[in-house]
Amino acid sequence: MTGTGDYGRQRLAYLEALAARLPGHGLGARVIGGDTPVLSVWHPETGRQTIVFAIPAGEGWMFLWAPGGQESADDPGRAAEMITATLTRPL
């Protein structure tokens, strides 16, 4: 059985992998939170922002963000592209 600490470390590793890709898309990002970290992401030009969650799902992990975004945590590059599209498209 995986303990809470193991989940926290896995979650943090996935969020950090995503955060490392976001500046290449013109976005800012910062991991926030303690035992259950999340990723705060913002677009400096549009001022739009979202919070990204990493959650266990089935046999793997998923990234989730508003409004309605989701992608496998195994593909942080694709998630970065999708988050960029979310924060740059017109409201």
Give an account of the 3D structure.
The protein is 34% helix and 32% strand. With 91 residues, it is α+β, with helices and mostly antiparallel strands. Strands 1-2-3-4-5 form a 5-stranded antiparallel beta sheet, covered by helices on one side.
Number of strands: 5
* Proportion of strand residues: 25-35%
Mean pLDDT: 92
Helix amount: 25-40%
Number of helices: 2
Low-confidence stretches: none
Strand order of the largest sheet: 1-2-3-4-5
- Characterize the biggest β-sheet: 5 strands, antiparallel
CA gyration radius, whole angstroms: 13 Å
Keywords summarizing the entry:
about 90 residues, alpha+beta, 5-stranded antiparallel beta sheet, 5 strands, about 35% helix, globular
Q: Secondary-structure blueprint of this entry?
A:
Blueprint: H1 4-21, E1 28-32, E2 38-42, E3 49-57, E4 60-65, E5 69-72, H2 76-88
Antiparallel strand pairs: 1-2, 2-3, 3-4, 4-5
Helix pairs in contact: 1-2
In short:
The chain has 91 residues and is of the alpha+beta class. It has helices at 4-21, 76-88, and strands spanning 28-32, 38-42, 49-57, 60-65, 69-72. The chain is built from two helices and five strands.
